[in-house]
Amino acid sequence: MQLPEQPVAGQPDPTVRRNADQLMAAINEIQIEKATSYRDVTPLPAIGATPPVQQPGQKDMSQWAIDASGVLKGVSIASVPIGVAVWIVGQVDPLTLGIILGSPAAIALAAARLVAKVKDANQAGQPVVQHFHGAVHQDTRTVTSTTRGVIANTRNQH
Asked: pTM here?
């Protein structure tokens, strides 16, 4: 049995519907009355009368990136005549053309990386030499640590 104050099954509660309508009316009223964004169109103040000037030199990059970009520029310029010649012939598959034009760049990058690694290896740090004045005690013990078991038990031996 359904009580008279209960809504009909499958129908929304009239008080919930009335509250939702009031909320939507309040939202619409706020949106109509007040702007939600503002753009300030006043020009920014100028700091000094001199216009910006392009600065000389390379952009801030790592030395490896500078070296790699130089190698890529050189290889790309060297591959242009080859590409033009192949394009004129017109007998080459696009995949083959990509391999032909891409392989010099890949080889040059690999060579540049190898040169950089060899250069880094040659510039390895010099041995540290320390001078002490007075009595010095040098401890040359080696500590061996063994940890075993479900509950860790560490035994250090000198």
From this structure: 0.25
Residue 74's CB is within 10 A of a number of other CB atoms, namely: 13
pLDDT the model gives residue 47? 75
- CA separation, residue 14 to residues 24, 25, 31, 62, 154 (Å): 15, 16, 26, 69, 72
**How many whole angstroms separate alpha carbon 72 and alpha carbon 134?**
57
**CA-based torsion, 59, 65, 67, 72: positive or negative:** negative
What pLDDT score does 60 carry? 74
* Cα–Cα distance for residue pair 71/46, rounded to 1 Å: 41
Under-50 pLDDT residues of the chain: none
* Beta carbons within 8 Å of 76's beta carbon, 6+ residues apart: 105
